Amino acid sequence: MCQCDGTLLATGSYDGYARIWTNNGRQASTLGQHKGPIFALKWNKKGNYILSAGVDKTTIIWDASSGHSRQQFAFHTAPALDVDWQTNTSFASCSTDQCIHVCSLGQEKPIKSFKGHSNEVNAIKWDPQGNLLASCSDDMTLKIWSMRQDTCVHDLQAHNKEIYTIKWSPTGPGTNNPNMNLILASASFDSTVRLWDVEKGACIHTLTKHSEPVYSVAFSPDGKFLASGSFDKCVHIWSTQV
C-alpha cells in the first residue's frame, strides 16, 4: 500500500511484520508487534499513520516516521481481516467474529460497534465522505452502516455465494467527480460483480463474464470504468456509464 504522495510503500507479511520501503527499494523501517500474519495494511490520507490488522485479533496504528506503535486495539475475538480509515485518526475494522468496530486513536473502547452479519466479515470500506460504511461477508450479504444508527441502513441481498471484496466509486459529493452518482461494487465467489445504487438500496447492474470467483475490483479515477479480476485468469474492464 503506497503513501498518498507515492514516496513510501508499506507491506504486511505472513511473518507478522510490516515494513516501510522507500521508492528506491530501501527498507526504511520494520513494524513488529503483531503475533502472526498481517491481513490488511492502510495508510491514512495524511500519510503519517499506518493501520494494520492481524490474525492475532488486533489492529494497530503505527507512526510512519518512527515505526513505533501508537496504539493497539484488542476488541475482536477472532482474526481481524480488514481495516479502513474514516478520518486521519479513526477507522473501522472487521473480523471472522462477525463484528465491526469503529475506533479512534486515544480512545480505549470502540466509539461504535456494528453487529448483523451471520458469518465472517471479509471487507469494509467507507464511502468517499466517510459517512457510510459498507461491509461484505461470507453470509452472502452486503450491508451499509451509518454512525447515526445501530442497525444497518441497507441489507443488500443478491449474491448467491460469499462476497469477497467491495469498492466505492470515486464519484458523488466530496469527490473530483461530484456530478456522477455514487455507486458500490461487490465481488463474489458466485463469479459476478454487482453494482449498487446505495441511496436506493438496489442492484443496478450484474456483470457476468467471469467463470470463477471474483477476488478484486477497482474503479478508474474518473469513475467511468471498473476493472475486475478473477480466478479464471481474466481481468475485465467495464464501463459504468450505462
Report what the structure shows:
Helix content is 0%, strand content 50%. The protein is mainly beta. The chain has two domains: 1-111, Methylamine Dehydrogenase, Chain H; 116-242, 7 Propeller (Methylamine Dehydrogenase, Chain H), CATH 2.130.10. The strands form six sheets. A four-stranded antiparallel sheet has the order 4-5-6-7, with no helix packed on it. A four-stranded antiparallel sheet has the order 8-9-10-11, with no helix packed on it. Strand 21 and strand 22 (235-239) form a beta hairpin. The protein is globular and about 45 Å long. 40% of the residues are buried. Keywords: Nucleus, Repeat, Ubl conjugation pathway, WD repeat.
Summarize the structure.
With 242 residues, the protein is mainly beta. Helix content is 0%, strand content 50%.
Supply the key terms.
242 residues, Methylamine Dehydrogenase, Chain H, 4-stranded antiparallel β-sheet, 22 strands, globular, ubl conjugation pathway, WD40_rpt, WD repeat, WD40_PAC1, repeat
Number of domains: 2
Total strand count, please?
22
Largest sheet: 4 strands, antiparallel
Supply the CATH superfamily name of the largest domain. YVTN repeat-like/Quinoprotein amine dehydrogenase
Assign the CATH class of the largest domain: Mainly Beta
What is the element string, with H for helices and E for strands?
EEEEEEEEEEEEEEEEEEEEEE
Q: Structural class of the secondary structure composition?
A: mainly beta
Number of helices: 0
| Low-confidence spans | none
- General shape: globular
Give the CATH architecture of the largest domain. 7 Propeller
Strand order of the largest sheet: 4-5-6-7
Distance between the termini: 31 Å
Radius of gyration: 17 Å
Query: What is the percentage of strand-forming residues?
Result: over 45%
Task: Specify the oligomeric state.
Answer: single chain
Report helical residue fraction.
under 10%
Find the CATH topology of the largest domain: Methylamine Dehydrogenase, Chain H
On the 0-100 scale, what is the average pLDDT?
96
